[in-house]
Design a protein that fits this description.
The protein is an alpha+beta fold. It contains nine helices and 20 strands. The protein folds into two domains: about 230 residues, P-loop containing nucleotide triphosphate hydrolases (Rossmann fold, 3-Layer(aba) Sandwich); about 110 residues, OB fold (Dihydrolipoamide Acetyltransferase, E2P) (Beta Barrel), CATH 2.40.50.140. Helix 2 packs across helix 3 and helix 2 packs parallel to helix 4. The longest helix has 18 residues. The protein is elongated and about 75 Å long. The site of adenosine-5'-triphosphate has 12 residues, from strand 2 and helix 1. Keywords: ATP-binding, Nucleotide-binding, Transport. One of its GO terms (molecular function) is ABC-type transporter activity. This is ABC-type sugar/spermidine/putrescine/iron/ thiamine transport system, ATPase component.
Length: about 375
């Protein structure tokens, strides 16, 4: 079955004077999906969202919502619901009045208001709070009211800009799960901006990695993590970060300052097929580096810089001959002292190789 497109951006550019906030972005947003825009500060995520909402004028390109060209349509005519970081509720109104407000300004009948508020409040488990004022609510409860207010109309698109960022860590995790369940059960098409990877990975059907006003990769969270298409995505997604080694590729092997690493046959084949490449970046995630106290086949000698027990796992920072440290994420059973000699080896199938010049992934 073909998935229906709910909204599209076609060659969208937004400049603020000489700053190019969004640079020729094309993107289809599918009906019912949870699309997360993830990227560092200043990458253009919020501007993309504001363009969709109609809060910014396009410099170039077209935006369609449900096949209607909306370039010149003001926000109120786009049938979009928004939840922002500062979930401004009206302080003098009760929860009920806050929830009903979007229907009130659209002059909907009293009976409809009562029914919709009751439905939404039940979904969000805030039925008991309807008579309270916002200042009598916890942060999480306020957040749910803000979500409820966005959900009260059946909007075409939900746009959310870091809606959980004002909550404490525990509540964020809880609200994240609730948001996910809610969005799936309602089937609302949602575009969600965050710079928090965990949020992106857990909430998204698809993640768009944004950098310098460009979508670097648009894929499922698993694809983004396991098959990053360039060095930026590889380094940005994953915490702690992927280890990178500068190396030279020759005949089935990558040689770095620290080791000569023989590659699996199928990886060699892909590198050969790729064509002429010499200088490469070998990328290995911390969980794909194994450490041990005894020498095993294919292991390289290294020294512990510091070892940190995190509870469920241990982070072993180590170095080879130089000063640069690398990281292995290993079982909490492993413990080692500072400067202790260890052996490190790589999970051969899990490695990434990037062209050093273009930074594009070859493997
Ligand atoms: P953050 O995570 O920090 O919110 P972001 O990815 O949402 O960042 P944007 O807010 O979209 O980034 O900003 C993208 C670029 O556009 C930045 O360089 C920013 O300084 C610039 N910019 C955004 N809004 C304006 C504005 N109204 N006037 C001038 N420059 C702007």
């Amino acid at each position: 079955m073909e998935t229906a497109v709910k909204a599209s951006l076609k060659n969208v550019t937004k400049k603020f004077d000489e700053v190019v906030a969004v640079n020729n972005v094309s993107l289809d947003i599918y009906e019912g999906e949870f699309l997360v825009l993830l990227g560092p500060s200043g990458s253009g995520k919020t501007t993309l969202l504001r363009l969709l909402a109609g809060l910014e004028q396009l410099t170039a390109g077209d935006i369609y919502i449900e096949e209607t060209l909306v370039n010149d349509l003001p926000p109120r005519h786009r049938n979009i619901a928004m939840v922002f970081q500062s979930y401004a509720l009206y302080p003098h109104m009760t929860v009920y009045e806050n929830l009903a407000y979007p229907l009130k300004i659209r002059k909907r009948p009293e009976a409809e208001k009562r029914q919709r508020v009751a439905e939404v409040a039940e979904r969000l488990e805030i039925s008991e709070l309807l008579k309270r004022k916002p200042k009598q609510l916890s942060g999480g409860q306020r957040q749910r009211v803000a979500l409820g207010r966005a959900m009260i109309r059946q909007a075409n698109l939900f746009l959310m800009d870091e809606p959980l960022s004002n909550l404490d860590a525990k509540l964020r995790v809880q609200m994240r799960a609730e948001l996910r369940r809610l969005q799936k059960s309602l089937g609302t098409t949602t575009v969600y901006v965050t710079h928090d990877q965990a949020e992106a990975m857990t909430l998204a059907d698809r993640v768009a990695i944004v950098n310098n006003g460009v979508i670097q990769q648009l894929a499922s969270p698993a694809d983004i993590y396991f098959h990053p298409i360039n060095r930026f995505v590889a380094g940005f997604v994953g915490s702690p970060q992927m280890n990178f080694f500068i190396g030279t590729y020759t005949q089935g092997q990558i040689t770095t300052d620290h080791f000569a690493y023989p590659l699996l046959a199928d990886i060699t084949q892909k590198l050969e097929e790729h064509g002429k490449v010499e200088k490469v970046l070998l990328g290995i995630r911390p969980e794909d580096i194994e450490v041990g106290k005894t020498q095993t086949e294919g292991a390289y000698p290294a020294k512990v810089y510091v070892s940190e027990l995190m509870g469920a796992e241990t982070f072993v920072f180590f170095h080879f001959s130089g000063t640069e440290t690398f990281l292995s994420r290993t079982s909490p059973d492993f413990s080692a002292n500072m400067d202790e000699d260890i052996w490190v080896s790589f999970k051969d199938k899990k490695i990434h190789v990037f062209d050093y010049e273009t930074e594009v992934a070859i493997i």
